[in-house]
Every structure is written in structure tokens, then in C-alpha cells.
Write a structure and sequence with these properties.
Largest sheet: none
Number of strands: 0
Shape: elongated
Mean pLDDT: 81
Number of helices: 8
Order of helices and strands: HHHHHHHH
CATH superfamily of the largest domain: RNA polymerase sigma factor, region 2, helix turn helix motif
Distance between the termini: 23 Å
CATH class of the largest domain: Mainly Alpha
CATH topology of the largest domain: Rna Polymerase Sigma Factor, Chain: A
Structural class: mainly alpha
Length: about 170
């Protein structure tokens, strides 16, 4: 949050990567419209960027705050559209497990940190396999590396990630 308050765009990008799924999910559960949920998600992160002081560190987690803001914005969108005669009759899903979502996002953040510190050849192999969906054979063909080398790099990278997650757990 210090970096966002300091207007560092990379900080907002990292926060977006960590919490956009949570914000979108909350908005989607209220609105049941993906386009409207995307609009709410954009409004939430825009508010964070334009008014970073609206989040007070002492009030709780950033993830929880973003989820509440998303829910409130989604309800405001419903109120503004006048689709319902009485907003009090709106049934909101209360099976949202923000804790589990937050834990998942924290774990993904830890994985990103480990990936950044990993040797470039290992990181490339893991990213191609898990983020781009390539098979080991396709990675070997695209990189010009032997198949065994690709498999070893991916295995070594996964062991490194697993160890890092065990240490921080």
C-alpha cells in the first residue's frame, strides 16, 4: 500500500494480479453478469489508485476491504439500474469464503516470488508448461532443448516451489 500511495504503477499491477479474482467473484455473485462484474472490478481498482487513503491499514486486510468495496459497488449498480423494485429483497450469496480466496491469493503471491528468483531457464519451462499449457515435448521443440533437460528443469522448479511453500506455511 505504501507503493500505491507513492503512485508506483507496478504496485497496483501486483495488487491487481493478487486480488482481481476475488473482486470479480464477489461482484459476479451479486450481479450475475460478467460485463457488469468487470465494470465493478475496474471501479474498485480505480478507486484504490485514485483514493489509496480510503483503505486504512489498521482496519483489516486489503483483500477483505477490496471484497467489501466490490460488494457495495455491485449493490450500488443494482440500485442504480432500478431492475429491482426493492433492493432489500435482493438475495446475496453468503457462501463466499473470502478467507480461502485470500489464502489462495497469498500462496500465488509466494509462488510468483519464487518464480522471479528462479534461474531463467527453469522459470521459462515452468511458465510454458503451467501458464501457457504446453506439453514437455512442445517446450523442447520451441526452445531447442532436449526433452530430458526440459523435464529436469520443470521437476527442479516444482521442487523449489514446493520447498518454498513448505517453509512459509
Amino acid at each position: 500500500m505504501q507503493q500505491i500511495r507513492g503512485r508506483e504503477a507496478d504496485a497496483l499491477s501486483r495488487v491487481y494480479d493478487l486480488y482481481s479474482t476475488v473482486v470479480f467473484s464477489v461482484a459476479m455473485r451479486v450481479l450475475r453478469d460478467s460485463a457488469a462484474a468487470e465494470d465493478v472490478m475496474q471501479e474498485v481498482f480505480l478507486k484504490l489508485w485514485q483514493q489509496p487513503e480510503s483503505f486504512a491499514d489498521h482496519r483489516g486486510s486489503l483483500c477483505g476491504w477490496l471484497a467489501v468495496v466490490a460488494r457495495n459497488r455491485a449493490i450500488d449498480k443494482i440500485r442504480g439500474s432500478r431492475r429491482l423494485e426493492n433492493v432489500d429483497d435482493l438475495q446475496l450469496s453468503n457462501n463466499i469464503d473470502l478467507g480461502a480466496d485470500a489464502e489462495r491469493e497469498i500462496m500465488l503471491g509466494k509462488v510468483r516470488v519464487v518464480l522471479e528468483k528462479m534461474p531463467a531457464d527453469q522459470r521459462q519451462a515452468v511458465e510454458m508448461a503451467f501458464f501457457e499449457g504446453h506439453t514437455h515435448t512442445e517446450i523442447a521443440q520451441q526452445t531447442g532443448q532436449p526433452l530430458g533437460t526440459v523435464k529436469t528443469r520443470i521437476r527442479s522448479a516444482l521442487i523449489t516451489i514446493r520447498k518454498a511453500l513448505e517453509v512459509t506455511a
